[in-house]
Amino acid sequence: MQAEESRTDLGAVRIHKNVIASIAALAAVEIDGVKRVGGDFKSGLLELIGKKSTASIKVEFNKAEEVKVEVPLIVKYGYNIPDVASKVQENVRNNLEKMTDLSIKDININIQGIERG
Amino acid sequence: MRVLGVIFYATVLTLIGLVFITFAFNKIQPQEINDTLIYIQNSPNSRFIVGLIGLLLILISYSFAQLILGRFASEKTIAFVTSSGKVTIALSAVEDLIRRVSSIMPEIKELRPDVIATKKGIKVDLRVILKSEANIPELTSRLEEIIKSKLAQVLGIEEQVFVNTHVAKIALVEEKKKRETDKQEPTIPFGGYTRG
Q1: I need a surface site. Which of A63, A95, B11, B72 has the fewest CB within 10 A?
Q2: What mean pLDDT comes out for the span A34-49?
Q3: By the CB < 8 Å criterion, does B82 face chain A?
């Protein structure tokens, strides 16, 4: 995994992709209507061996140093999906901008399932 | 990448097929296979190379399989764009939703939805098993209405929803219950006799 680097007078500050993924995961589950962050095969395997992973959240940097985040979600039954998704996008963007000062390009939400809350 | 994956699997399977065909035409003798295997086993270098090829093949096939499956999975979604990015809803999530909606209807014993996103709208095929007391025309129309309104409400989409219902079976609940209660009350042998 790559890390986003910013230079200061005293040296370089690198933010690992995992950090961005963790912020995105925490910001996503804060929203009412989100049951949990979804998973894929890799994150499922990591969870099996007892590692809590944010591997299912994809973080990409483009040449202009903009961040693209893809968050898989499981939504609670009874909630309006577009409403929940847009609130998640907004909260993830606010938290990422507040904590990392990065420029956020896209926050893509992938609704993987619906579960009873 | 998907094409590469298909080429990889096709090549491996063709090679295996060719080996079998050559063997069938008696072009390869069992002795030759045996000699080759012995030669590989005797040299540590060739054993290492064979092991490496095996590992490489497993890794390549795993990554290709993941790519192909990932591509197939990503195609089965409903997507819309917001100001912050794209939102995709997996069709399996829509199926989950329909299953949960139907659980509020006691007349339905089992429901298997199959959701397909087409250019015209969302097509929902329902395969239902009903309980015997259900009024089929009334129930199916109510089910279709509920699904349509719930999908519009939860997914917030303006596309048309087509619901096709297929009643696969009507389960006889009362008879089953009766049979179960019969099983639960075993008759005591000589229970009717008393001491005089």
Answers
A1: A63
A2: 77
A3: yes
